[in-house]
Amino acid sequence: MKNIIITLFVLFFGSMVIPVNGQNLEKIGEEKAAHIVLFKFKDRTTTKQIQSLKNEILKQKCTIPGLLEISFGEDFTSRAKGFTHAEVAVFRDRKSLEDFNTSDYHQQLIITHIKPVLEDILVLDYQQKK
């Protein structure tokens, strides 16, 4: 009888999802990949060129497999050591980010929209818990 009660207890409470720090235990261990890019543009870069880059970056949301979120914005604090704009992208997993980085689409984006206006760039990728 004691074993039956223990088994029922484990089956009942073991199937419940218990949140931990806002996450479900089921999801711990699965990691998204965050991709942060800081842009420092050449002095002669126009607002139109930056807007064109922004448009290209944001349209990736609908075309890149594994891309969950993407944003592009301008610094408003002047604390970024001359970097004026940033892109933040979140991928389903690290492999999705790696596939994107080596894709023809991304390489073409760099050649046509980034290199012509870029003075400096800083890229940081990290994994985050889902």
Describe the structure.
With 130 residues, the protein is of the alpha+beta class. The chain is built from four helices and six strands. It has helices at 2-14, 47-58, 94-101, 104-114; strands at 19-20, 23-24, 31-41, 67-74, 85-91, 118-129. The protein has a four-stranded antiparallel beta sheet with strand order 4-5-3-6. It has a two-stranded antiparallel sheet with strand order 1-2. Strand 1 and strand 2 form a beta hairpin. The radius of gyration is 22 Å and the shape is globular.
Q: What is the approximate shape?
A: globular
Structural class: alpha+beta
Beta-strand content: 25-35%
Q: What is the topology, as strand order, of the major beta sheet?
A: 4-5-3-6
Order of helices and strands: HEEEHEEHHE
Tell me the radius of gyration.
Answer: 22 Å
Question: How much helical structure, as a percent, in the residues?
Answer: 25-40%
Tell me about the largest β-sheet: 4 strands, antiparallel
Low-confidence stretches: 2-29
Number of strands: 6
* Count of helical stretches: 4
The average pLDDT value, as a whole number, equals 82
The termini sit apart by 41 Å
List keywords for this structure.
130 residues, alpha+beta, 4-stranded antiparallel β-sheet, two-stranded antiparallel ribbon, 6 strands, 32% strand, disordered N terminus
Nutshell version of this structure?
With 130 residues, the chain is of the alpha+beta class. The chain has four helices and six strands, in the order αβββαββααβ. It has helices spanning 2-14, 47-58, 94-101, 104-114, and strands at residues 19-20, 23-24, 31-41, 67-74, 85-91, 118-129.
